[in-house]
Argininosuccinate lyase
Amino acid sequence: MKEKDILGEKSEINLKAKQFISSLEFDEWIFEADVMVDMAHIIMLMERGIIPEKPGKKILEELEDVKYDDLSEEEDVHVAIETYLKNKLGEKVSGWLHTARSRNDEVATCIRIKSREEILETVNKLLKLNKALIKRVEEHKTTIMPGFTHLQHAEPTSLSHYFLSYIQSFNRDIDRLLDAYDRINKSPLGGGAFSSTSFDIDREMTADLLGFDEILENSMDAVSTRDYIHELISSLSNLITSISRIAEELILWSTKEFSYVDLPSEFTSTSSIMPQKKNPDVLEIIRAKAGSVQGNLNSVQTTLKALPYAYNRDLQEITPNLWKSLKSCQDSIYLIKEILKGMKINEGTLKEQSQTGFIGASELANYLVKNRDTPFRRAHNMVSQAIEKSKDYQEIAEFLNVEEDVVSDVMDPETIVQNKKPRGSPSKEKILESKSNLEKEIEENEEKLNERLNYLSQKREMLKNKKTEYIG
């Protein structure tokens, strides 16, 4: 079955082929951005005297009322909007819309507008997550727990130290996202198919109306690059990898073997056959979503690696990877926040576990360095041999020729933690210092977020006012 394409193809396009190349399923993401782009473009065309005001005003009026559900099934949202306008106004009016523009620069502009909004929403969610973690730090400033390397007891630390490590990591994710925002917030509109246009357009005007910081000057690069999508998904992959690692640890910590935490029931499920089960399904899906985002990144890299300049339809397959990655990350941020807020921490188990397995052995070696004038490597070997041949503190003391009380005191987990004084250590003093420093970073990032949100809000208002000048 064939049907006629509204773009005036040289021949009728096969219906199956049209469905195959259609991006409408994912274009709802950029619908509002597309309407904004159309409005800014029409206003610029009228201001420059490129099109008559009468049809331009009628187009603006219809664009103000169009809804996504009003659109017909077309090749993409850009064609669907143009078809909507054609049906409402006739081609003699609607036909002016696409003057001095290609779908190539149009879609590139829409993706950047939507991407910057989603970046700011992701940052906002991360800030809320970090604030929730700050509260848990305050609650557990002195809660002792075992620290791990190779998933084995290593040295004692504090739970607040653990939570602060998450915050520091997420602050870097925020930095990466805001850096990506600044590179994304440049306008490709006016790049045309790839070599701009012979019409006397004003690219700076449309960039300003749409809230971009500046234009992407080279028109070929402007319409054909998707490096910003690659960069953004890479940042999202970093972010969700960190979340996945937290999810993995909480899954372990909630097992009977660990029993460090009890997960909130609303984020778990039971078994269809085993009624006693409390399965960490949400955390497991978060862990899997990280793999999906990494797969999306690989898909983008694979698509981009062999594309000649300028525009190729392959680029259409890249964008859904971005939308899916953003949604996976935003959902995961919210869910991990709620789980971290709501989980019960079994402090008694943490304290008990921090006293097993000679976890203070490193500090005993340090004691020999400080008090017996023993080189560290020698002290390390002596303690290693003592532990291998001993079953308790008394035997260790005898092997090292040290009083048992000294061994007991030196290897006490709480004493060890509170004696850690370098910056960033788990002692209460340094936890409070780090908490204060990270809270300042959170405040600074909030200011950066609000600055960008306010700027975009002002520009939306400017576009609205400019439109009102023409249609009241």
